[in-house]
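Researcher: Here's a chain I'd like modeled. Treat it as a single chain, no partners, no ligands.
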Amino acid sequence: YPQFHVTNMGIGPHDANAIFEWKNTFHLMHQANWTDWAHLVSSDLVHWTRLPSALSPNGDWDGSLTILDGKP
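Model: Modeled as a single isolated chain. Structure tokens:
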């Protein structure tokens, strides 16, 4: 895998749909497979940690992010 590019670990051709900074941490979301969205976090945009699935879309394959009352 590229050294400075987040990839989806070969699960499918899914691009990142949301990258945002919240409380000094970068978050990146992408469709991990046909049923879940991956959630990764980084403090420097180079080193990433995968977290448990963020969403199970049930047919929603695209979206956007909003900050509401200080929370994403």
